[in-house]
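Folded chain entry —
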Amino acid sequence: MRTFLGRALAVIAVLLIPMAGGTISALATFDALSAPGPERPVPAATPLAFDPAEPTAVVVIGDNGAVVSDALAPYEILAASGRFNVYTVASRRRPLPLTGGLDLVPDLSFADLAELTGGAAPTLAVVPAMPDVGEPSTAPVTTWLRDQASRGALLLSVCNGAGVLASAGLLDGRPATAHWMRIGSFESDYPAVNWVHGKRFVDSGTVVTTAGVLSGIDGTLHMIERLAGSTVAANAAKAVRWRYYGNTPPVVTGIAMPAPAAIINAGWTWAPPTVGVMLTPGVGEIDLASVFETHDKSLADRMLAVSADGGPIRSRHGLTFLPRADLAGAAPDLDRLLVPGAGVRLGQVPDGLEPVYVHSGQDFAYNDAVRDLARTTDVATARWTAETMELPTDDLRLDGPAWPWQQTALPILLIFAGIAAVICLPRPRTTRSQISTTTA
């Protein structure tokens, strides 16, 4: 009996070791998603246009950053409409990390915005998901949002930005929604909110909340429709190739079937590929976000933002981004080099790197990014990534390996090797003196 129990405990220990290793690796992967970049000088502020006759819309970035698509997709859509003064704002003007490793220098601090607008509250404040939602570190943002709301600002939360509004008390007594993976915990954390499942956006009057990630596009277009009319909203949707305006797709409402692929990638990709993302002047904000968000959600790659000379770049609608390396210096450590933006072509590239031009310019940017992920990682991971982003995939053809077989094989081999070793352990031998002692 003792021998059996000993072997059983040894087998359990063998099973726990790879599980613990995978868990540690996965947690490290999650922690890295919002890690700040190195210290760098803050580029001088660029003079910003302000038309007092147009409504002002701001995208709020937290002191610890924000989710890249939640911030950049609404920004570009609002800017593309041509009907708003659009800015990114934060409590201070300094480099802030967007998920995946893209560092943004906000256009304005809260104080700068007040000076620019003559103290008037913005017409619309967009609140993306933030890595520290519900934590004391969000106080500068939640305090500012409460003040702006009290002075008439409309609020639009994207994805788990609803948690930021809820923690500020701005959703109490209202219907609201959030990402399908987080809304359950929000129901426990903020019971005064009437949480709604299965909607891409919920309009409660002065506040609109949206479901996961790209549902923020639908919520942004809805706000544009309210403030500038359906024609302006339709043109903005066309400008970014979002074909679902007026025909909102359904949302995911439960754990998706390909989820284990991402879990395996997070826990068992011991040396994830380092993927460089080339920042080029004039690149579209949604093009950038689609690459960082897709690889961020896949948990399969390590991203590194680079520019030709390591200096800042300005995007299509004037945002300032800081790379974390220059291309020549980073090249030896890169496994791939992705180049966001349709029509972008690089000049000289370091030997051994073949640029991958992600965007065709003929389709929605995230469709191209997910296709690239499927080809280079696997289809299951790409489908999981699309579902977590609320990207419709009914007519999205994905080609590539079906599953992350290599990562799956590693823990299985370790487990079987450990079990075999335990089973093959020699039994303890009973000596003649032990027998005599037992008989006596």
Summary: Residues 346 and 355 are 8 Å apart (CA to CA). The domain at 257-403 is CATH 3.40.50.880 (Rossmann fold). The chain has three domains: 1-23+411-440, 56-239, 257-403.
